[in-house]
Amino acid sequence: MSNPTALFIRFRGWATVRLATEPDPPDEPRGASGFTYAFAGEPPLDRIIRMQPNDDPKFVRSGAAFGWGVFVYDAFVIDKEAVVTPVHDLVGARINLHGQPKFESRNWLLAPPGWEPIVPFDLAVESKDGKAVLRRTAPLDPKNPAPVWQQPLGTLLAQGAKDLWPERETIGSATGIWNALTTVRQRIRVLEALKSQETHVLRRQCLESRLSELRYALARPTDARVMIRYFVERFSVSMQGADPIVPSEGPLENLDPSLPWLVDFWAGAFDCDLLAAFFNGSLQIPFRPSD
Fold this sequence. Notes:
This protein is an alpha+beta fold. The protein contains five helices and 13 strands.
């Protein structure tokens, strides 16, 4: 690898996002008047984005037709002559957000829904055992350490999403979900089968509550429980936090910790039954200039 200019890391996968929905307040722990709920025997809604849900299975609902977690599926270096060199060792690495990150809209109090930032933003590329290979933060304002609710709106919007849009082709190509009602029907069949085998009282009631919500959605094709599956929020974040973690040896030892790292991604295919979202994007890290 000669004269490398930048490392690109592409990632995708399913995370859990257990949050209350309007008109519930953002700190509603169980769900009352929105369309997401924490049912009997489940932990409360806490708004935390968990990119590796299997690390704490109590936050994972049964019935998913996919594997949990956000992982690297492609990584490569581009040099000055535009030659692309794969970095096979990073494929399969975990993508994680640390510090209990949340979508910080708070029902329009901080930013409009679809324009909110994720705070804190502390992104890591990790080995299978959870050890950080690359890691850096993106403070809302490195010069203003005030909490998120004391930050100016312009600061929040600068790092926030760029609105919430229906993108059926994007969702279908990334997740295979081309028809949201078909997904609802399939989930109903799966949960009915699980319920028929469940003997634990609380787990059985949880399955019945979830089925009730899915049947409600199936009867109302334009309901938010259905249509939200087609929407995406797009983010572009410049990571400029101090003291990033970079490899000290090997082919990536000359990554530049002094310049911003750029991460572009979308979150979408929101699943109000599993309390999940799909994340898809890329991280770009520059190398130090070669002599």
